[in-house]
Amino acid sequence: MVFYGIFSILLIVMYFILSMKAKKTYAMFVERYKSGSSLVFMAPVSLYIIDRLNIIDRLYSRISFVQRTMISLYGSRDALQYTKMFLAQLISTVLICLLGSSVFALLSQGDTTIFIAGCIITVMVPVVMFKRIINMENERRNAIVTELPEVVNKIVLLINAGETVQQALIRCVATKQAEDGPLYKDLREAVNKLTSNEPFHSVMNELSKNCGIQEVSIFTTTILLNYRKGGHDLVLALRELSHELWEKRKSISKTKGEEASSKLVFPLVLIFVAVMIIVGYPALSLL
């Protein structure tokens, strides 16, 4: 019981000491990159621990997949910063779990079982958080693959109407609203670069790199290989690509439908059990 009390006090004292050192240093960083993060009030302390212990460099081989995921979600320019914020969120959650475990164990008169259960939850937290960002990446990938066929179709129609590839891209993006999905966000950045007179091939390569998806890479490669020729060759290549993309979109929609159906199974089973109890209880009470 004494151990849990000392452990809780040490965690609280450590947090306040580190908070005084780190709050001013990391305030602007946290404010800029707090999007999608929880426990933001603890982020300065966790960031201080990350930098002080040089965690990213020491454990890079084990957390490199986190940075690859952040590149996919936020782009290569800010990937390192969002990786640090994710690790800060992870450390903050672990500290909260450890503190909660020791406090509950102390309140239960030193029950070791509660502390062990809290430690098990603490170990499971990173797994859940890693799975969450992987799911976010998959959702982004599916959203881009879902939007891409429409973009390709619009570009084909505009090219057939006499537009150049650059003009078709600009007009295609101009017709959509700012709240559209991740593909249009990257396309807007590409269009802004085109209107700033950046080279077309470098803009397309940057678009492919930012999206980090095979389908977008095929799309940009198809355009780069054929846009100088223009005319029938480009339209034919884009139509073939559009057909393939629509098939992938159908496959994604089918998969989502199956996932939604599987999620309904458990509630339906509960409803069935509840109905059986309601119907069967009067009969059993008469026996």
UniProtKB/TrEMBL annotation:
Type II secretion system protein GspF domain location: 154-282
Keyword Metal-binding: no
Cell location: Cell membrane
Membrane topology: Multi-pass membrane protein
GO cellular component, one term: plasma membrane
Swiss-Prot/TrEMBL keywords: Cell membrane, Membrane, Transmembrane, Transmembrane helix
Transmembrane feature ranges: 6-22, 86-107, 113-134, 264-284
InterPro entries found in the cross-reference section: T2SS_GspF_dom
Protein name: Type II secretion system protein GspF domain-containing protein
Organism: Pullulanibacillus pueri
